[in-house]
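Hi again,

Forgot to attach this to my earlier email, sorry! This is the prediction with 3-isopropylmalic acid bound. I've pasted everything inline since the attachment limit keeps bouncing my files.
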Amino acid sequence: MKIAVLPGDGIGPEVTAEAVAVLEALALPGLTLFTGDVGGAAYHRHGHPLPEETLAMAREADAILFGAVGDPTCDALERHLRPEQAILGLRKHLGLFANLRPAKVFAGLEHLSPLRADIAAGLDMLIVRELTGDVYFGAKGQRTTDAGEREGWDAMSYSESEVRRIAHVAFRAAAAAGLPLTSVDKANVLETSQLWRDVVLEVAADYPQVALDHMYVDNAAMQTVSHPERFGVLLTGNLFGDILSDLASAAVGSIGLLPSASLGERQTGHGTFGLYEPIHGSAPDIAGQGKANPMATILSAAMMLRHSFGLEDQAARIEGAVARALADGILGGDLGGSHGTAAIGAGVRERL
Ligand code: IPM
Ligand code: MG
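Structure tokens for the complex follow:
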């Protein structure tokens, strides 16, 4: 089990250190960890946010544990040198098109949600976000119009094969869990979304056991905070998935709790090659202060054991330990508590 650990910027190194400590506490035989530079940290050291050697290490690995990228000192750089290009580049180069973002309110922790407890209790959904297409990776630029005005533009597109493969991921997840599937788009305005909807309907024919509905993204945002119980699996494109997953995480109570898995097609010995990262960013305002909540990264490590290494029991062990730590009041500042990064990590390890 070769794991490339890419801590990145801001709170990335602090939270990945705790996740690595949890993995080490499990004493899994055959675990080998490598560490590489990404993001602003890599730019400052190597002049590029995704250096060749980091990409080579990532390709060699069976799974990647990723912290966060984003560094305000890099804001003025040209776009291709900005820290975010590290994660976008890894996703694209490694073909990690399927992003799984589970968002659920832990039982008994409804009070941590900014939503009314009776509403929050219904939040337990899996967001399946397409990750290597859409307006994120289309042509883009700035130009001057005939009227002499500056204009920014970004092309949004999805090919049918891109939609089909992510739709299969979502249908398979829904079928396996016996959950309904909601495909989220903006087909009332966007052609990209119309094609998305048509292809999702075609794929649906292979999964008669899955209840499918379609929802416009604005409505989906509203339902996420008013009727979250109506969602089981939510399938959507790259941009809408980015926004809805932050919304869902805030509804859970903190962005510091939500893990993610980004999977491609390559199989490892016991699962699928993937990149695992918290959905939060680098939080430069609290970086280096030992305040960040490492739970999202720890839960990402659990997803790694499940999806890349087939270690369902160990994954569940980690998830159980996090749930018990939360129930026991081991809460970071993001949840109104006073536990720091190290104390939260230790609290989880004690409960493994
Ligand atoms: C995420 C992040 C990234 C994204 C950024 C860092 C490029 O917000 O993983 O959700 O937009 O995909
Ligand atoms: Mg995001």
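The chain has two domains: 1-101+255-352, 110-253. The mean pLDDT is 96.

That should be everything now.

G.
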